[in-house]
Amino acid sequence: MVALTPSTQAEESPVDILLVDSRQLVRAGIERVLSDSGHLTVSDVAANCNEAIRLARRQKPQIIMVNLPGSSVEVLDGASKIRRQFPDIPILVLADESELIIQERLLQAGVAGCVSSLCSVGELFTAIATVLKGERYISDSLARKLAERRLPGYEASPFDQLTHRELQVFLLVAEGWDTLAIAKELCVTRKTVNGYRNRVLEKLHMQTEVELMHLAIRHGLVRIPGTI
Amino acid sequence: MEQPDIRILLVDHQEMVRCGLQRLLNDMPQMCVVGEACNGEEAVQLSRRLKPDVVLIDVQIPGIGGLEATRRISRGGADIRIVVMASQIDDLFPIRLLDAGAAGYLSKNCGIEEISDAICVVNRGERYISADIARQMALSTLPGGEQSPFGRLSQRELQVMLMVAQGQSIHDISGHLCLSSKTISTYRYRLYEKLGVGNDVELARLAIRHGIVGIALQP
Predict the structure, then answer these.
(1) Pairwise CB contact (< 8 Å): A25 & B60
(2) What's the pLDDT score for residue A11?
(3) How close B15 comes to chain A (CA, Å)?
(4) pLDDT under 70 in chain B at which residues?
(5) How distant is the Cα of A174 from the closest Cα of chain B, in angstroms?
(6) C-alpha torsion sign, points A179, A180, A182, A186
(7) How far apart are CA A114 and CA A143, in angstroms?
(8) What residues does CATH 3.40.50.2300 cover in chain A?
(9) Which domains, from first to last, does chain B contain?
(10) What is the pLDDT, as a whole number, of residue A147?
């Protein structure tokens, strides 16, 4: 078992964590590991980020931990939304390692920590302890990859040039959302969505939305259920 | 007479989930986790070495993946039952996994009690499919929900469908097939209707899920 901060934690009440995960079984597993540590407890669970915001309003947790499978746009938007609502609660996101652009944008949005969803239990505890102190935590492999991007000669990702809104529209299009649904989700007009979509097509040198989808799948930003 | 514990190999890519499930299962009567693996290759190796009664495996694991691991373990000859857990439910995948030799299929949205029920059921040699997945499977076999909706397409529709799913524009398709853009659009809307999709991306995703179109490697 990994001790968090052995000195004072033992006498204090455990740290309240709000866990965001859509799967009951996964929540149960993570809850058990956290509570077995003796100094952490899952005070509430939410299936998605909107539910997390509702729950956090009622009872403020000390950390919000997001572990959502599948949709990277859901993680990015959801975590950003939580951050705006509760700027003083540290958010720790478990994200897929392949989605570098998403992790980078999450950090830009003010998320306190980003770890690989494949990280060890030990690293998870370290990340929790770090963000709890008010510091930020980035896993070693993510830090290395982000640093590499700053080096000369590094081939930029095609998605770097997309603004936050463009990235959102790109991911939603790649997940098969139509213009109307995207407009509703982002609270903008269809015309605005079309404008974003056309700019994305232009910036990424693509002709069709299906090409965008193939690009997103190739870069691990979108996954299709039933395929590995 | 007391039944021996059911020996379980637990396969999941998230260490914190694996670790938690292992403790939850070990707390239950008759359940004993004898090994853990984080990817498909390790799952196959450990199944051979440990010869567990039941392998509880997540379908989205790295390496060869849950489907291929299931196939290899079930063809390994040992009497090992496999229960697959899935984060996202898909109507096609359970059938492929059951074909590959899985005895059980569960949504990861189930509780720990259901996992333990499923393990007991498959250990008796029966099959276990969680209710939400069974419902989807049942619906997909009703009239109007055939296994492959692509079987109902005409030759021409199939041609247009493949081109759309590969990312070609209406303009390109009409050029290739020597048909007007209007005709291609008519085919496209008929495709949407027959396949039950609302746009090109949904059509492409459906084709990928059915293995009809692969992911384009080059833009």
Answers:
(1) no
(2) 58
(3) 6
(4) 1, 89-92, 140-147, 216-219
(5) 7
(6) positive
(7) 10
(8) 15-148
(9) 6-140 (3.40.50.2300), 149-209 (1.10.10.10)
(10) 85
CATH 1.10.10.10 is the classification of domain A164-218? yes
Asked whether residue A52 carries a pLDDT value surpassing 50, the answer given is: yes
What ipTM did this prediction achieve? Answer: 0.77
- Encoding tokens for residue B209? 């899920």
Residue A55 pLDDT greater than 80, yes or no: yes
CB contact under 8 A, A224 and B209: yes
pLDDT at B141: 64
Asked whether the predicted pLDDT for residue A141 surpasses 70, the reply is: yes
* A25–B111 CB contact, under 8 Å: yes
How far lies A219's CA from each of A176, A214, A226, B217, in Å?
17, 9, 18, 10
Among A26, A121, A175, the residue with its CB nearest the CB of B15 is: A121
Range A15-148: architecture per CATH: 3-Layer(aba) Sandwich (3.40)
Q: Where in chain A is the domain with CATH 1.10.10.10?
A: 164-218
Q: Are the C-beta atoms of residues A149 and A138 closer than 8 Å to each other?
A: no
Answer whether A1 touches B (CB < 8 Å): no
% chain A with pLDDT above 90: 67
E strands along chain B, which residues? 6-11, 31-37, 54-58, 81-86, 104-107, 128-129
Q: Does B188 touch chain A (CB under 8 A)?
A: no
Cβ contact B66–A228 (<8 Å): yes
